Amino acid sequence: MKNIYLILISLLFITACDNDLNQFPPLEAEASSLTTYAEVLNAAYHYQQPSTTPLAVMGDFRADNMLMKEAPFTAFDNYNAALSGGDLVGQFFQPFYSNLYKSILSANNVIDHSKNAVEVGEARFLRALSYFKLVKVFGDVTINLSSAPSISDKSILVRQPAAKVYDEVIIPDFQAAIAVLTNTSVANGRASKIAAQGMLAKVYMQRSNFTSAAPLLASVVSSAAAAKISLKAKFADVFGEANDLNSEILYATRISTSINNLYGFSKFPEWFKGTDTKSPNPLDPKLTAAFNVNPADLRKAITIDEANKKGKKWGGLDQDWIELRYADILLLHAEALNENGTSAEAVLDVLDPIRVRAGLAVLDHNVLKTKDQVRKAILDERRLELALEGQRWFDLVRTGTVNSEMGQTISPNYYLFPIPNSEILSSSGIITQNAGY
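RE: above sequence
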């Protein structure tokens, strides 16, 4: 699909509209003459790309995996209002916010106008994914389900409760995608049935709805082979540009620097590797210490460069951003089973393939006997398996372990991130700021 992205140059734009909610794909003006919405759908895919670096920074630099070394970016490691500073908002939160709403608007156009059921299913997947990212980062957000939202009526910009966004948008959209998509598109980097099932399960896990998550995760596991999804034999083979769309990837945001240089940024590899000057040696010693608990862990050499205090999991700038991979599914499945009261032995068995691939002994249910012990073991495993994949901070928030894992008391105000001030101003204050910023 990277080649397809090249046709989007004629579609991508930045306007001077009052608010990002109203930034239409230019083809919308000619909707009556369109016979296909494939290009608009591709725009919805493309607008996911600028969310990748913000997710990487928010997920790992905000947590205890990576550190910022240069002001004002050190605010990511200080849990106060400093994070709402202009440079930070302009580089991270504004592009994240505005491009996801452009993806949503593109998806709305497909949903409202396309006669192709698969296109509509993919669009609903992307709209759900966009809102899921927005809610995890900002909490309450504006809901737009229209392909032609009013430019004059700013009341529609009022932020809606996160629970409403989940119940009325994210969950129904993923469910609709599951109903119409197949798994023939997995290898092509498009939304698929199994990806929608996996993402919906992540939504339920985010909300601690383990009862709903468990059967979905079990379904993904049972259908993985037929969808040609499996763990790679070697951890190293999951990452690097040559391994994009490998068998472990359920869904990834595709990256193309030929588009990126003009219309956004997806430079997450530079941040982790320390080649971005804002954090030349970003590795948090806490992550090193976590790996060193088990010196035999093969993932360490792939994930971090201890000597130079850098990350090394990612390759060049054309590497796709992994949104969901099979190891994540197995870890979530184990977690859901544990929370639903499954025996420690059965839960830990789910983790065996991940542990074995990492060169580690399987976990012993005679040692890890209680639900709390197994829960902590799963969280630790998630940290090492998914390090530098933008997951850690959001895992800490959803599991209620921010303070215990970070070793400090952090106000819940700073579990979320600041709404871009430009959105507040352009809405005449209809859009409000998060508490604490």
